[in-house]
Amino acid sequence: MDNALLGIGLPAVLIGFATLAFMVHRELGPFAGLNVAGRWLLTGLFGMGFVAFGIKMAVALAIERLPEQTITPLLAMQVVAARGDEQFDTGFINPAPARQAHYVWEALPEAAPEPADNPGSAAKVALGKRLFNEKKLSGDGTLSCASCHDLSGHAGADARPTALGIDRQSGPRNTPTVWNAAFMSRLFWDGRATSLEEQAMGPILNPIEMGLSTSAEAERRLRQDASYRQDFARAFGDRQPITFARIAQAIAAYERMLITPDAPYDRFVRGDATALNPAQLRGMALFESTGCVLCHRGPSFSDAGLIGGESAFRIFPANATPYEKEYDLLLDGKRGVWRIASLRNVALTGPWLHNGSVDKLENVVRIMASAQLGRSGKLNTWLNDDRQLGKADRSPIGDKEVADLVAFLEALSSERLVAGAGKGRG
Fold first, then answer.
1. Is 401 a catalytic residue?
2. pTM: predicted TM-score of the whole model, two decimal places
3. Quick one: CATH architecture of 264-425?
């Protein structure tokens, strides 16, 4: 580009200015009776266009040849979402990494990955299932893991805004589903657990969840039961004692069996062209084009997924909207940093969001579109992969788009869990 400017633009400016000077000095000047100084003044006035063109050409050459010192610093400026006590800019914030040029849709694998230090076995899974339903692991013997994670009726959640624990204490967070948790790299809303084994220990000892006093008490209660001693021997070996760590390992082994690769979406991605209806297909296209895949990518539909995930956490709500007050989305007036939830079976696990404040999936879509994707009526520019400025349509998402996106989210529901939920309501 710079060679073209030099080869064409510079000669054009010089020839044009020379021609103008010749006309003024040989024709217009003598005709008007101007002296030499007057002729050069007239030449300068008429030649301002050539001067302006020359300045523009010089600027273009500088940008082309020295981008790091000219335009690049301007393009690199961006709004950064503050954390902690810092205030958020009122402009558009998208804290997600850039989306790849061609998104690849993936089905959920038929089996979950296992850690090397806790391989699964039939005996261990059977023990884990028993422990998952064991009320002895709660302080007063009234609760089990299954009390908050109804595997069939509520798709692994509890249908409450927030969890209900021991002594009917209400927890601060909505209960996440355990279905497909085996594919997540982070567990709990704040992502503090990095494995199913670590996560399984938390609720048992939490004073407002299952409320058991100590891990030693859990071991003591199970050791008193001869059938548990036999089950642990089969699962871990005859000489292995019942320990709290192995309680968690058995529960985790069972939860790795709780996967749902049987959604209509999975059938579609695996080659069944009839698996999705027209509304779901439109919603699938919108899910990508609107930018939902910035955070909900991979077979788990979460950037916190073990497969395809890149950055497990996002600020929410990232952009100021009226929904903050309507649904009490802030934490003590501040924006939170949350693990990205999986959208697998999301249509079955309401109410939604970290505080369970939204009871309609349509409203969840509207909240996320405005708060996370900036669909609030603004137009914003950014630098794309080709290092060119572009313009984004940030008009509010319409009702038809919302309906299609909800239809697609429903296509992420396991057909087995849908059938179970129907039986539970009957």
1. no
2. 0.75
3. Orthogonal Bundle (1.10)
